[in-house]
Amino acid sequence: MKLEDEEREWRRSRIRLPPRELMTAFPEAKPIIREKLKEYEEKKEELDRSIKDKLDRIAAMDTDNFSKWFYREWVKVTDIQEVLK
Known about the structure:
It is a single chain. It contains four helices and no strands. 81% of the residues lie in helices and 0% in strands. It is elongated, with a radius of gyration of 21 Å. With 85 residues, the chain is mostly helical.
């Protein structure tokens, strides 16, 4: 059996507990999870402000529509992908 096949089988066979059961099994994780959520929310708000600022600057540019479209698409590809992560 190939290593990839073994890993695939391991991933398929592992136990997947729902979040509620995980929290019951590991109650000490609750404060850590809260802190991480807070960090992620702050980072998302920062990214949202940055994206809005960039889109405002693009809208105010004195350039052709294609260039504005291209810059907006670039923001989608770079910054919005970071938000989705």
